[in-house]
Write a structure and sequence with these properties.
about 290 residues, alpha+beta, Fumarylacetoacetate hydrolase, domain 2, 2 domains, 6-stranded mixed sheet, 18 strands, binds manganese (II) ion
Length: about 290
């Protein structure tokens, strides 16, 4: 099954796709958020599907939002693919590199991405996103770590490289946190329905290939990342972990940075495809 959130920004409604049909989850869940996961939401959705108690809905023509509500935290791993570390001018890390992205960067998978005024080095990063389903705190084993994972999503860790590396002050978050810089979705696939190892992961700009790798190339896999992170912070239900991007970003020097009007397309096998158009932030009028 696939969980989605459908509707206008800020008024998304939870739905589930299963067996080729879409059903409303409003009878059992207000949203797909921390409370949903903490209360065993995925199990409850399965039970409702099996019982046939969910109402079918037609979502044609509706906006698709991020498949989870605004997370409590967006935790990111840097340089988790050796070839990407090399194209960034770095040695592969011997410990996972942790940085934070502001949770308000999360937007829908087909929403516009806004280029900050004056920004000249906006870059794409397709990543396997891990959604946390249970508190992850000082986990002893890889198995305990995987038991804390609710599911997986496609995530775009949009980055501004001057902000990240030149104006950083020594820490990357400034280059990762501009508004709209984390398109997510379209779907959340439960962890027991997909193996996160060995999924093809790719991106294109205006239809031209950029990244094309496999999650098998991660230096630290999902189980190790969640176990490791839990030694340093408590991951909570509904949190998002971006697990790093493979080679083929503009930072490599092989491709130009993004410009207004261009279209990013990103996908991971089994998790769907997302697409965003780049627009200037100063074209947006705040209500
Ligand atoms: Mn990243």
């Amino acid at each position: 099954m696939e969980l989605l959130r459908i509707g206008p920004v800020g008024r998304e409604r939870p739905v589930v796709r299963a067996g080729g049909r879409t059903y409303s989850l409003e009878s059992i869940a207000g949203d797909i958020d921390r409370g949903f996961f903490a209360a065993g939401g995925i199990r409850r959705v399965r039970e409702a599907l099996a019982a046939g108690t969910l109402a079918p809905v037609d979502i044609d023509g509706e906006r698709i939002g991020a498949p989870i509500a605004r997370p409590g935290a967006v935790v990111c791993i840097g340089q988790n693919y050796a070839a990407h570390a090399a194209e960034s001018g770095s040695e592969p890390p011997t410990e996972p590199i942790l940085f934070f992205k502001h949770p308000n960067t999360v937007v829908g998978p087909f929403d516009d991405v806004r280029i900050p005024p004056g920004a000249r080095a906006v870059d794409w990063e397709v990543e396997l996103g891990v959604v946390i389903g249970a508190p992850a705190r000082y986990l002893p084993t890889r198995e305990a770590a995987l038991a804390c994972v609710a599911g997986y999503v496609v995530s775009n860790d949009v980055s501004e490289r001057d902000y990240q590396l030149v104006r950083s002050g020594g820490q990357w978050s400034k280059g990762k946190s501009s508004e709209t810089f984390n398109p997510l979705g379209p779907v959340l696939v439960p962890a027991d329905e997909i193996d996160p190892r060995g999924l093809r992961i790719w991106s294109r700009i205006d239809g031209e290939p950029r990244q094309d790798s496999s999650t098998a190339d991660m230096i630290f896999d999902v189980a190790e990342l969640v176990r490791h992170l839990s030694q340093f912070l408590v991951l909570e239900p509904g949190d998002l972990v971006n697990t790093g991007t493979p080679q083929g970003v503009a930072l490599s020097g092989r491709f130009p940075y993004l410009a207004g009007g261009e279209v990013m397309e990103l996908g991971i096998d089994g998790l769907g495809v997302q697409q965003q158009r780049l627009v200037p932030a100063d074209a947006v009028v705040n209500a």
